[in-house]
Design a protein that fits this description.
By secondary structure, this protein is α/β, with parallel strands linked by helices. It is 29% helix and 15% strand. It has 14 helices and 19 strands.
Length: 542
């Protein structure tokens, strides 16, 4: 009798699990933001929505991106290292399979995978994984969102541009212009279209929504009222602000109490010696305004989920594509993302020009070394580098029905390649054996679903990085990294030295040699394919 009751109970549980609705998924990525730029990771910037999601979910403290826009998005979408997906560098073809600037036909996107299981797939925001931004015909759109699994799309094909008049703005497969140019702001449009997708969705089926903000990538564009709330906030300067963030991060448990603050970057003067302080402050005020505007938009997405009764069974993931960007935007810099004039005929004034206050449409500025150094607190270096300041990202996971933690921290070492296998496991979807008529490349990631349930997972033996001339490998506590300027390899014990201050390559030469050999093997076998040398190959014929 007891055996019969046990069998009945097991059958009931099996049926219940089978009948449980599959979760919706909202994947949010912000652009060019550092590890400490949101409140729940130590920032003074107002991010109440992200803080709420963190308080109700899980924050990862050792999650990694690839250090730059295009490669990160390729890796996120496919579960592959970016070279395997064909986007080892940016949106240009360098003549080698790993560097085509286009997603190849041997990878599948999250949307393509989930779509096979009945998910409706939507995207709002920045795509940035194809070299064809303005194709001559429909065939040139082979790597646009609709052609890679998304049912609906609103956003930009290119990676950067005005927040008031975005370059390559597209709805589904058609290039468009802002509907109401007098009131248009791209961050709001991304949020509002994402919310609309949720509102219009037929909830008989689950959905996947990818929201890819351009905030807080340059140019520094924000609404006057959003900038005003930060007036005077940064008069204390970057040195004091870094120290304050550092202390808050310790109190939050994001870093250990023993984690030192890395030294101010050599290109950053002490705040007392900085020139044009009013202008310097204004740059950070606009940057903070961009982030707060994005957070408010995420709040509207959350409200849309709540109105439809989807919030509890929706997995929300938030991360950034790379660390804070140190680039000082030059007066002569040009690109397809920078028009000569606004639509109403005003001449653009590009460049970090002291005294020209950023924020309005006619300006094209960045926040530079000093504030990027703050964004990446407590770590070294910036976007495009493989030191921790370039590649470590926040990851917030919120899912009331599937995550046991409420405000917890996860210290597991994880990477973008883990997102796709995580979604495959929690949805029960099978990966296809092929893509575009070609055998699919096996994904590299390992699911985080167990971590959501409070379990330890079998992590990576190693994770790898390669961008520009830089490279790195992490294996357990050990990290071997090389600057993109061909400096010697550096070895760090991240358990004892997370801010990479003590190079152990001379003290532990055998460990350094083993990791270098392992990185080289990985690069040649998986990442570079036929690239002749580690790094970014030159274009064939040049």
């Amino acid at each position: 009798m007891l055996l019969l009751r046990t069998l009945c109970l097991l059958l009931f549980l099996a049926v219940s699990l089978e009948a449980a609705p599959r979760p919706n998924i909202v994947l949010i990525m912000s652009d060019d933001m550092g590890y400490s730029d949101i409140g729940c990771y130590g920032s003074e910037v107002a991010t109440p929505t992200l803080d709420r999601l963190a308080a109700g979910g899980l924050r990862f403290t050792q999650f990694y991106n690839t250090g730059r826009c295009c490669p990160t998005r390729a890796s996120l979408m496919t579960g592959l290292y970016p070279h395997q997906a064909g986007v080892g560098h940016m949106m240009n073809d360098r003549g080698h399979p790993g560097y085509r600037g286009d997603l190849n036909n041997r990878c599948v996107t999250i949307a393509q995978v989930l779509g096979t299981a009945g998910y409706r797939c939507y995207m709002s925001g920045k795509w940035h994984v194809t070299k064809t931004v303005r194709p001559n015909n429909e065939d040139g759109k082979h790597n646009w969102p609709r052609q890679r699994g998304f049912d609906r799309f609103y956003g930009t094909i290119h990676g950067a541009g005005s927040f008031f008049d975005p370059n390559s703005l597209t709805r589904d497969n058609t290039l468009i212009t802002p509907e109401d140019p007098d009131s248009y702001y791209y961050t709001d449009a991304i949020s509002d279209n994402a919310s609309q997708f949720i509102a219009e969705h037929d909830h008989k089926a689950p959905f996947f929504l990818y929201v890819a903000y351009t905030a807080a990538h340059w140019p520094l564009h924000a609404r006057p009222e959003d900038i005003a709330r930060y007036k005077g906030k940064y008069a204390k300067g970057w040195d004091k602000l870094r120290k304050e963030r550092h202390q808050r991060m310790k109190k939050l448990g994001i870093i250990s109490a023993s984690t030192p603050l890395s030294p101010r970057h050599p290109n950053v003067p002490p705040w007392e010696e900085a020139q044009h302080k009013d202008w310097q402050q204004r740059r950070m005020e606009v940057y903070a305004a961009q982030i707060t505007s994005m957070d408010a938009g995420i709040g509207r997405i959350v409200e849309a989920l709540e109105r439809r009764g989807n919030f509890d069974n929706t997995l929300i993931l938030y991360m950034t594509d790379n660390g804070g960007c140190h680039v000082e935007y030059g007066k002569t810099r040009r690109g397809s993302y920078l028009p000569e004039k606004t639509r109403d005929g005003r001449k653009m004034k590009p460049g970090n020009i002291p005294g020209l206050m950023p924020g309005p449409e006619i300006t094209y500025q960045s926040y530079g070394y000093g504030w990027a150094n703050v964004s990446n607190t407590p770590y070294r270096m910036f976007k495009q580098f493989d030191h921790e300041g370039g590649i470590r990202t926040p990851l917030i996971a919120h899912w009331p029905r599937g995550i046991s933690s409420r405000g917890g921290l996860a210290g597991e070492v994880a990477h973008l390649v883990d997102i796709l296998p995580t979604l495959v496991e929690i949805t029960g979807v099978r990966l296809p054996a092929s893509s575009g008529g070609s055998h699919r490349i096996e994904i590299n990631g390992r699911s985080l679903a167990g971590v959501f349930r409070g379990k330890k997972r079998q992590g990576h033996d190693s994770i790898y990085f390669s961008h520009n001339k830089g490279r790195a490998i992490r294996e357990g506590k050990w990290k071997l990294v090389q600057d993109r300027k061909k400096k010697p390899w550096e070895l760090y014990d991240l358990d004892k030295d997370p801010t990479e201050l003590r190079d152990l390559s001379q003290e532990e030469p055998e460990i350094a040699a083993r990791l270098k050999a392992r990185w080289t093997t990985w690069f040649r076998q998986q990442a570079s394919q036929d690239s002749p040398v580690p790094g970014v190959p030159e274009k064939k014929g040049t």
